[in-house]
Amino acid sequence: MTVFVPHYAMSGGTLIALAANEIVMDPNAVLGPVDPQIGQYAAASILRVLREKEKKDIDDQTIILADMSEKALKQVKQCVQELVSEKMGPEEALMLAEKLTSGQWTHDYPLTCKELGELGITTSNDMPTEIYRLMDLYPQPVQRRPSVQYVPLPYQGEKKAGSPK
Questions:
Q1: CA 90: distance to chain centroid?
Q2: pTM of the prediction?
Q3: In a 3-state reduction of DSSP, which class is residue 155?
Q4: How confident is the model at residue 152, as a pLDDT?
Q5: How far is CA 58 from CA 14, 22, 67, 73, 156, in A?
Q6: How far apart are the C-alpha atoms of 121 and 96, rounded to whole Å?
């Protein structure tokens, strides 16, 4: 199976790419770390609280999240090892799994083709033009979030009950 990454494949997309026999990426495309996230927090960061604070100073919810984090890290690390075990030796697979899951980067950190190569992940830049043509069929919506709301003057807002028109 070949995975084509014309732009980016983060988190679960990285796992799919790792499962492939071949990863073909645009020279500017990126993959991302697969460090587990527990709610809005990185599992590795939750566990850091346990290392840096005394247990008596940690609330129950954080202890529960840390338990979940420990399990999640173990599971994702094992998953990565299994996905790459046929492509690299066991020591290399373990090292890659540790780097991708440990939280050494933020979850949205872009791993370039060069960085992936340094991690032992082989990629190709031989992206077929058909992939770009396919992507053109599915344009991404433009995300516009105005920072200032336009209010026309004179303002014609809602009239309060009993106020003159």
A1: 25
A2: 0.80
A3: coil
A4: 54
A5: 33, 45, 13, 20, 52
A6: 9
